[in-house]
Amino acid sequence: MPNLIEKIRDLPELATFLELLEKAELLTSLERDRNCTVFAPNDAAFASAPADILAEYYKRFYNTRMLLSHHIVVGVFLHGDLLALEKRDLPSTANTSLRVTDNYGIARVAGAKLIVEDMSVDNGVLHVIDRVLLPSQLLS
Fold it and tell me: Nearest-5° angle of CA 34, CA 2, CA 32?
């Protein structure tokens, strides 16, 4: 079974996410860390995100790393697990919170819809989401 990075590499629609993981020096940790859930925005999500806000994240290493870490939580959370956590916050590895909601049986994380869910990998689970999750700490 592939690890998180191998799975992300296998999905062409996650090219931007993969490139940013590399820039943020998160590849090694996601290859070896255990029990992680990654909410990966697809390329369309990056294309539709506000360019000026994303540019601020890309300017500095710390900001890029925080942006990407905001999409990662410790623990394995499948779609059903997320639905059971409705209206609760998941702590991200960026020390931020991701609110889980149930939208008629479809889990949303910080407002993002899971468009491909429950891709199990050797060291966790990967979900593809429809938008970039922007941590509020850097938006203020």
Answer: 30
